[in-house]
Amino acid sequence: xxxxxxxxxxxxxxxxxxxxxxxxxxxxxxxxxxxxxxxxxxxxxxxxxxxxxxxxxxxxxxxxxxxxxxxxxxxxxxxxxxxxxxxxxxxxxxxxxxxxxxxxxxxxxxxxxxxxxxxxxxxxxxxxxxxxxxxxxxxxxxxxxxxxxxxxxxxxxxxxxxxxxxxxxxxxxxxxxxxxxxxxxxxxxxxxxxxxxxxxxxxxxxxxxxxxxxxxxxxxxxxxxxxxxxxxxxxxxxxxxxxxxxxxxxxxxxxxxxxxxxxxxxxxxxxxxxxxxxxxxxxxxxxxxxxxxxxxxxxxxxxxxxxxxxxxxxxxxxxxxxxxxxxxxxxxxxxxxxxxxxxxxxxxxxxxxxxxxxxxxxxxxxxxxxxxxxxxxxxxxxxxxxxxxxxxxxxxxxxxxxxxxxxxxxxxxxxxxxxxxxxxxxxxxxxxxxxxxxxxxxxxxxxxxxxxxxxxxxxxxxxxxxxxxxxxxxxxxxxxxxxxxxxxxxxxxxxxxxxxxxxxxxxxxxxxxxxxxxxxxxxxxxxxxxxxxxxxxxxxxxxxxxx
Length: 547
Prior knowledge:
- The protein has about 550 residues and is α/β, with parallel strands linked by helices.
- The protein is built from 19 helices and 17 strands.
- Strands 1-4-5-7-9-8-10-11-14-15-16-17 form a twelve-stranded mixed β-sheet, with helices on both faces. The protein has a three-stranded mixed β-sheet with strand order 2-3-6, covered by helices on one side. A two-stranded parallel ribbon has the order 12-13.
- A hairpin with a 2-residue loop joins strand 4 and strand 5 (about 50-60).
- Helix 14 packs across helix 19 (about 540-545).
- It starts with a helix and ends with a helix.
């Protein structure tokens, strides 16, 4: 499978040799070659840098191309020569607006979230994962390390496990854990539900991207011990679309037993796409391709770009945005037999502890580029609020004003949008999980405001990621570099590490953190200083839930 093994092995040996002959005055040592690790498909070798071994771009399934397109992932082919795991694999096909607004801030953020760069080299052959692990005694450690598997954000449309903000080096070093990030099929390639038209031959098409994640967890179960990880202590984590992916995996029969704890950040997934709605969306894409219901075979031979372009045209015709044509996991009666957390929490994950939370001003990250941002007037605010909250808008606006008396109309509308999606969804998921009476659920609320861009974002969507990944060093374009940012980084990364190790986020950087229940509704508020708040914005929650 891998080509040029001699060249790669020589390059790795050269790196190791260079480390040996570096002058004594050098302050930074070059990376060294890792030991060769035997996986179930063949040997791999990566690089050690700063005491952390990284193995990047490891195939966990076969390329989902040709006749494998829109099908469940198949096992990767085996190899015999040493696989070069020194660089990331290709990102999956992306669906993202290529245009920048030209601002310095947006260009700076592109160094943290590299989706536009990845659109230059995305590929259907993309089923790769990455592993970071402390280099000491990796394969022979007596006490195996907790494993933290990250599923990227970007909705179900874009993103990859290679974003700088997801680099696992610092988290692995701080917590003595193994970190894994994953690429998987997205948008039309991962969620085009064809079974409603073509029948059983396409049974898995609507959840192909989710089945990729299942395959990655199967790889972890089979192989992570060789990297020093404990296959019996696996935590899955994700933010935004990644949080929704975690929510969905908690209800997928094929995922049962492959993980033991779950973290859902700013992405509560209560429902999936009904099969009839998914079929309507599929017809819109097929119409752009000129593919007829009675012959779906061309879908396996059409060029990748033709399929991607047809989806983009269908998306644009639908109006785009959150209200437009959406491809996401489907309640297909097979891979996903029910909605993830509606009407209740899935019984199969009753014994899986959950950590869930959201940020105060989620939607600024999406809205700051809009023409109205910073210009919205009091007169315009009620109509916009009604478009989001319907007949609850007046009561909701009054409650938001009470909680945020200094907010302008722009920020009031923004926080209303945020709460109508993240606050209420997170609270409902936590309630339903707690009602099972099984493993506990813990909730957090990030209210610390980043100072970047003169504070324009406040506490936006994505701000939690560099803090819990211990990656402020790589994300100053989003977090800034201040004593407060470092304090939040310490608190949040410590909590995530504690949760991965024990199923409880309690640690000595925080006050006592009770589990969430529908009576007390205890929530850890991440700020400087942090503190436990009972039912934060309870009136907003009650208005949105109708209670």
